[in-house]
## 1
Amino acid sequence: MPDEDPAGATEALLATDGDSPIGGVALAGIGRMSAIDAVRTRIGMAISLGLLQPGERLPDQHEVAAGLSVGSITARRALTGLADEGILVRRRGRNGGTFVADEPPRDALRALAVGSSDFAAVHQLVDRRMLYECSITHFAALDATEAQLGELERLTASMAASTTWAEYHQADEHFHRLVGTASGLGAATEQYHRTLAELYAYFIPYPIRELHAANADHIQLVAALRERDVVRAVGISRRHVDVLHRTMFMGLLEAE
């Protein structure tokens, strides 16, 4: 099961019907794998794409688990499997931890690749999220409460201060789910949250500098929501989601 949400204030404001469903989503390709193999594949793709560099230190297993929305045992077994294959290396001592191998075996990385069916599935999920996101943002600009806006600002600050992709991803998930809740659209919000869950199931680690750059959209969005500027807010959300076609793993691979 996914680890418990560490942000208690956010959980109260979200007012959803339970824990995040990300850990239990069944999808084509990656989603047909075991949870352990899915984590191995997501980390392996990040290494193949150069998003995780040789010698780079990974967050500890609890952070990896939270960042990829899986349980700690799943994360530990996935990291152990990658280390057994020589893709990762474990080091002990004060400066120890889990690192990307200096020369990860190419054959082992190729075995973790995903097929074109995953590309099509994720492009479709991005389009579906676009449809929901624009509607959600429209009504959030009209109905978001002061408490919700304050929490959204806190989450943008948390993302700006994040030092790892795992830490950033947790705040990012809470941010978008809270925008959905702030719309007050009921059943439509639940559908939006499910779409987020399906898309986050494909999340792979990205360099923190790229994630910090994406956070600029979050900051601008909160400002537009505060001003009740529907047109500006929807435009920011549309741009923020549309770029996923080019920056998620399938866009990076298709550009090669």
Note: The mean pLDDT is 87.
## 2
Amino acid sequence: MRIVYVCHLDPATSDYPLFLAQGWEALGHQVTLVPYDLLCTNDVVVSARQRMLCWDAPCRLRYFERRLTRICRDARAQILLLGNLFVSCAGMRRLRATCGCAVGFILGYNHLLQDHTAGMIRDADFVLLHDSYLDPVIRGTQYGRNPNVFHFMGAADPNEHRPLELTEADRQRYGGDVAFIGGYTGYRESVLASLAGFDLRLWGPDWEKRPGLARFARREPVYGLKKTKIYCAARIVVNLQEPEKQINSFNSRVPEILACGGFPLTSYQKDTELTPLVEGQSVVSFTTPEELRDKVAHYLDHPTERAAVIREGRRIVLEHLTWEKAAAKLARDLETVLGPGRRS
């Protein structure tokens, strides 16, 4: 297949689109990555126009649609995958008609009422979901729903997420009892406040503004090798899912941590049950701040149990939960939406 994938590619924002593209290319598909954030928000002309009163949202969408049309024609795209609401509903229909490709988008968060999400669901050839909670809400043929709904979960890239030999300086800088990677939100504060009695490291923006947690803040961007070092150095890495964004979804943080030989302690997510990971044996979860605090204390005091979970979890991740396998599954899904006229 020839796939054009529009996504955010700032490394501090997200890196899974790159892993998916690499997986598809390894299978022999042709992938053109279009980094919306780097092409548009860093584009001098676009930035200048955005500062003008006449440069409103419809103009931005139309500008990018024309740019994307040229890219799809040059790539002879069969699949156009939008990682966000980068074009309008009418733009999606025009791109399909003009370029002759199947057009779909990824609904990463549960923002069904945001902007033109409902229209995109209706007009797309397919929808990719992180969260199985939305599947029965979207799947169907009536009331603007979409029958082509495909689910993909978090995964790890063993080339990037792997155990590292750390220096003593690395261990001092990135270690500690408990690490959390992510910026401040009220929900995260309400949960992580229960860990104030531990050696806690909070990696992300705005924690220094919270009186109860400011002393734990490490305000610097975290991605790539630094993220891997944190996974390897911290005794426990906490993973939190924002309940307003996703309900059941299985976050990439869990397989990434395990692939690095780290110990993830994650908020309970129902989609974990769709993986081979087993609670207490290869992954450990919590449902309340009090349970999080108690499990942190328990596993810090029982390193042998912690090591057993890491060992079994890492084996499962490397066997079942890699982006290579996720890309293969999604490629099979996408091929089902290509009609005879689009297969050539």
Note: Residues 2 and 297 are 50 Å apart (CA to CA).
## 3
Amino acid sequence: MALRWSYTLSPGTVLVLTTFSLRFNDGSFDDIGTASIGVFNSYRTRFNISRSELATLIINKATETEEAVYQCKVTTNSGSSGYRIQVIVTVPVKLTHVSCDQTVREGSNTTLFCEGTGKPTPNITLTRVLENGSDGEILPQLEFSNITRSASGTYRCTAQNGYETVSQVFKVNVTYPAKIVKLVSEHELPAQQSVSLDCQAEGNPLPTHSWTPCDPQQIQCHKSLLILQVIDKSVYTFTCKVANNLGSDTRSTTLFIAGDLINVTLVITSEDCTAEEYDQLWEKLSRMIDQIFAGKLGYESVQQRNIRCGSVIVDLALKFSSTVRESEVLSILRDASDNGKFGDFNVTAITGTRDTGITTATTPTSSSDIQACRDCACSCTVLGAVIGILVVIIIALVVYILWLHKKGK
């Protein structure tokens, strides 16, 4: 770096000497050299004096040591005059200690580092990098006690001193155990309907999901969303489990078959299906159902959907004023059976029927139908044998007629 002074001599003035000096902190000066002689030995490695330029001092390598006040003094036959130059040496900004990418456990104590040097002394700031790449607010502190998951993200360390700006980014990844945050505890749905069970979870690393019970050949058991169709039971319970390498969590949900119309099948082993007794049986049974459900679950009415003989199997449709759970209806009926509320009807089985709605009732309509229904196993066997013999005879007659016809020709 060259320090240059310029001067003008008055007419008749003779230049005697040009001297370059360095001022110390105490205000005193020390000569570096002269234009005629050059740099003195003590400063020869640090400075040089130009021979080709007028009053020029060259600083060989500017460092913070060379930051000082320099003077050029011109001596003539009529006196001397000096002029001073203040040299300020700047040092490039440099980040010396910045945190690297790190993964920390939630709840731990963490310190982020953002340090730098330079001259003038730089202003050091640490900011959170927003999603659009810009800087958020400057963090007031670099120490996190009991760090939370919200601290995860990208950070920028910046050093700026008015001459230049340097920055460096790093990431903080806060890990925490898997936890279920939402799973509806109960579902009510009509028979033959599908349902979606959503097990929402959080965790870092991302948690895995598993459902039990679950048939992997029919449905996907390892996703947060379980889609299935209920078939044969009134109540189902499914358990969702989420896990990562820091922990796990489980929660259960229960499905109830429900509706304002509940289809039920009763098996009554104490009764026969006869023409004389059918109407009386149904009238008696419907009265009992009305009594059993009186004042319960908003019960309105019962309708006979179908009846089958042997042991009397009755399909019922129970109507309610609002949605009720099939399991509650079956529980009331089974309790009634256990406590003799069906009277002399021996009800041996009570099940929910997976049909929906109300279908046309099928009942015996004539004495012959009733008799066939009552003796179903025997009658069907005899009738089948008779039909089989008739078919054989007809076939034999057809073959014989064809043979005679061919023989006559």
Note: The CA atoms of residues 48 and 318 lie 112 Å apart.
